[in-house]
Amino acid sequence: MEIKRGLRSLLTTAAAVAVLMVLGPDREANAEGTLRIAITAADVPTTTGMPNNGFEGFRFLGYPAFEALVHWDLSSADRPSEIVPGLAESWTQDKADPTKWVFNLRKGVKFHDGTDFNADAVIWNLERFYDVGSAQFEAQGSAMTRARNPNLESWRKIDDYTVEISTDEPLSYFPYLVAYVLYASPTQFEKVGGTWEAFAKAPAGTGPFKVVEFKPHVSATLEKFEDYWNEEKVAKLDKMIVYPMPEETTRLAALRSGQVDWIEMPPPDAIPSLEDAGYEIVTHTYPHIWPWEFNFKKEDSPFRDRRVRVAANYCIDRDGVVQLLNGTAEPATGFFHKSNPLYGNPNESYKYDPDKARQLLKEAGYSPDNPVKAKILISTAGSGQRTPLPMNEFLQQTLSECGFDLEFEVVDFGTLLVALRSDPAGPQALGVDAMNMSLVTSDISQMARWFWSANFAPGGSNWGNWRNDEFDQVLREVQMATDPEIIRKKTARLHEILVDDAPWLWVVHDLSPRAISRKVKGFVPAQAWFQDFTQIEIEE
Amino acid sequence: MWFFILRRILYAVPVLLGVSIIVFTLVQLSPGDVVDILIPPEAPEEVADALRKQYGLNEPVYIQYFIWLGHLLQGDLGTSIFSGQPVGGELASALLNTLKLAVPAAILGMTSGIILGSLAAFHNGTWLDRLFSAAAITGVSLPHYWVGIVLVVAFAVIWNVLPGQGMGPDGFPATWEQIRHLILPVFTMSLIPMGVVSRLVRATVLEVIGRDFVTTLHAKGLLNRRVLMHVSKNAAPAVLALMGLQFGYLLGGSVLVETVFNWPGSGNLMVLAVFRRDVPVLSATIVVLAAIFVVINIVVDILQALIDPRLRR
User: Fold this and answer.
1) Minimum distance, in Å, between the CA of residue A370 and any CA atom of chain B
2) The CATH number of the domain where A8 resides is what?
3) How much is the pTM?
4) Quick check: A27 pLDDT over 80?
5) Residue-wise over A270-299: b if at least 16 C-beta within 10 A, else e?
6) What is the CATH number of the domain that holds B110?
7) Set of chain B residues whose Cβ sits within 8 Å of the Cβ of A24
């Protein structure tokens, strides 16, 4: 009797599973022309026109919906992206007073709410970020904008389509910084009640996509903006939905089950199986580096000795790291990628050469009995950090073969961020001799941010407090220069100094892997942190 | 009885106050402040100050606490430092999402736990007992996030019959599509209450069955189902207490299950707030969850007292 009852319940369960199976494959609605993307951020980036979550936020909720006076050219996969006219058709630097820049605004540009983009909108947005006393001041957006663009000092409307913006000192690369100031609709801000909290739910920019739905922690839906000013870049997609999925296996499962069409950063060890299953793995060179930043302020740091820094750079097996990441990174031997024309001709040409490293350490007074002892601050995970634990353990192992005795201080990403923004000799640095934080290498302005002695942490992004007088001098010359050829040559010289003096351990450049369904067509992976989604189509 | 209920409610006040103080203190112990994480180092000090002022971070910690408590008592949970959205709205949405998982998981887990445990006890020593006990131990022992991953791989990736992440479309009443999104996470979350409740029910029922009054009831010639009723009534208080605790844990949001299924519930919200040091979100989430936990326990205490009058004393 009991056996019969047991059998009956087993049969009932089997029938239930069978019913489940015949329901057929997952068919979550994928409207025609809808691109569904899983990003690595833990939350939907803010939709106020100054997205948080770093440049991933900018990639998906920044440029697609909001624009700057200066754009990045995202049309080519073959060369590093450069700046091009955006909401400004052109700009000029005043020859008599090089701190003044005149921007000629593009006519006929509409915000998503139908109002005109003009000089008044530019002034209103600059006040939003730079005038603490303005009604539209937004502290969080202001902090991010002013950090990326600290030299912008004043502004003036010349006429409805011309504005003059001044910097606190001559800055040849100012247009690169202008690319990070995005413009939101003043009318829409007033219409929703004059708060950024309300604006986030019904935002309006000028980009090729408009944000039509914002669900905190769940998704943001962007829709094609039919009245976009650049007819060639009117989106081919109807919609783009962005889902935050910080867990890489969750992103992987979402792609494999057809719930999304595109995932950022698939797990490296899943790449072969994704390729076997017919997904396209897109990798491309872009301005990102995964280094160790050495601490120069800690008095007993062994990395204050150039020979030790250079030895470390000769001792690491970069190809091994690349192999660990299944080919989704490239060896880094400097701040810029080696193919970049600004790489220059440095004296040091880093490759895996343990003998040379050991020789340098010997010259610096170290030996197998007296190894270089150092502590490195690393994170368990984090934006752009790839898989920091196995990568750092691999480096620790290879460096030990040359005479380094390293230990790690492992923290969560938030704590690492706090340390990056704090005094390297202060308590937040936990007494480390270097830290591992991946950073942006897009242009000269970023180089100045990380290496200029005027930017020492705290209060600046030169965390390690590295100072090189020649570097500072040449950088000043670049800032003052107006001739593009001189700027190019001197930037290359700056890079040569960086490679030879090795303020960082140059490890790898990320190749920004993303896994994409075969039905996604027309994507051109630009060599930039940002991408153009307007030319993408979904082929059913 | 009313005095009993009032007393239990009054006990909850110091518990919640204690929780709120501990949360506030612990958050302050971590290095740096939230503004250090929120903004880049080059941001001018006037902007950092404006942010600190906006969120009251320029005040001493104890003042911050009392201001927060004052707002809380007026029903204002504050504003998230990261998203700029009202915490009340974010928390309500996250809790509702967690309830969508926790309620069906509790019903499924506890019902199956009671049935399996009772059957195992009434068939003590037989193959049914061994089978159901093994199922219970498996439910307790398997890491449920691992079960979740296996289920996602099997049902979402390989067979592609059920969605493996997210909640599906919005809307009420629930659509079939929403229910399909619930199946895997609910089953995963139900495993632990199923296992825990089943083991306790089995042990308690066995203990009650062994008591003299059961032998007496059998001797008096009562039908088996009448004996079962008496046994259940005696076993109920212990099982109810455990079920209350288990439901509280489920409402706290199983962080790992929510992570595996990308479910925007209260567990996810809390973890995000910890990493970002988003004090308003973290404090409100923990205090509200603690309040719910306390309420569940009060309800369980009342139910126990109703079943067993001795507990009212």
Assistant:
1) 34
2) 3.40.190.10
3) 0.86
4) no
5) bbeebeeeebebbbbbbbbbbbbbbbbbbe
6) 1.10.3720.10
7) 161
Number of domains within chain A: 3
Within this chain, do residues A369 and A352 fall inside the same structural domain, yes or no?
A: yes
Determine the distance from the C-alpha atom of residue A449 to the mean position of all C-alpha atoms in its chain, rounded to a whole number. 14
A416 close to A437: Cβ distance less than 8 angstroms: yes
Indicate the residue of A46, A259, A461 with minimum beta-carbon distance to B42: A461
Does residue A505 sit in the same domain as residue A517? Answer: no
Say what the pLDDT of residue B272 is: 85
- Is residue B16 in some structural domain? no
Count of CA atoms in the C-beta half-sphere (13 A) of A526: 18
**Cβ-defined contact of B166 to A259 (cutoff 8 Å):** yes
A450, A462 Cβ separation under 8 angstroms:
yes
- The pLDDT profile of chain B, 313 residues, written as one tens digit per residue, is 788 888 888 888 898 889 888 888 887 776 667 787 778 777 888 888 888 888 888 888 889 889 888 998 898 998 888 888 889 999 999 999 999 999 999 999 999 999 999 999 989 889 999 999 898 888 888 888 899 999 999 999 889 899 988 888 877 767 888 899 999 999 999 998 999 999 999 999 999 988 999 889 989 988 888 888 888 888 888 888 889 888 888 887 678 889 889 899 998 898 888 877 788 898 899 888 888 888 888 888 888 888 877 776 6
Contact with chain B for residue A9, Cβ under 8 A: no
**Which residue type is seen at B246?**
Q
Residues of A in contact with B159 (CB under 8 A): 21
Q: Tell me whether residues B47 and A217 touch, CB distance under 8 A.
A: no
Helix (H) or strand (E) run with residue B36 in it:
helix B34-38
Sign for the CA dihedral angle at B119, B125, B126, B131 comes to positive
Cβ neighbors of A92 (< 8 A, separation 6 or more) are A101, A102
Same domain, A351 and A497: yes
Residue A325 and residue A432 in one domain: yes
Give the type of residue at A85.
P
Q: What is the pLDDT of residues A390-407, one digit of tens each?
A: 999 999 999 999 999 999
Selected residue with higher pLDDT from A312 and B268: A312
Q: Are residues A110 and A31 in the same domain?
A: no
Question: Closest approach of chain B CAs to the CA of A399, in angstroms?
Answer: 30
CA–CA min distance A389, chain B (Å): 18
Q: Which residue of B has its CA nearest to A461?
A: B41
Chain B residues touching residue A258 (CB < 8 angstroms):
160
**Please, is A239 exposed, middle or buried when counting C-beta atoms within 10 Å of its C-beta (0-12, 13-18, 19+)?**
buried
User: What is the distance between the alpha carbons of residues B91 and B229, in angstroms, rounded to a whole number?
Assistant: 41
What gap in Å lies between CA A368 and CA A357, rounded to an integer? 12
Spell out which residues of chain B touch residue A247, defining contact as CB-CB under 8 Å.
259-260, 262
Shortest distance, CA B306 to any CA of chain A (angstroms): 34
Q: Do B162 and A20 touch (CB under 8 A)?
A: yes
Determine the average pLDDT of the residues in A92-116.
97
A492-535 pLDDT, tens digit each:
999 999 999 999 999 999 998 999 999 999 999 999 999 999 99
Q: Please name the residue of chain A whose CA is at the shortest distance from the CA of residue B156.
A: A257
The boundaries of the domain holding residue A121 are 66-191
Whole-complex ipTM: 0.83
Cβ pair A242, A57 in contact under 8 A: no
Last residue of a domain, one of A157, A191, A225: A191
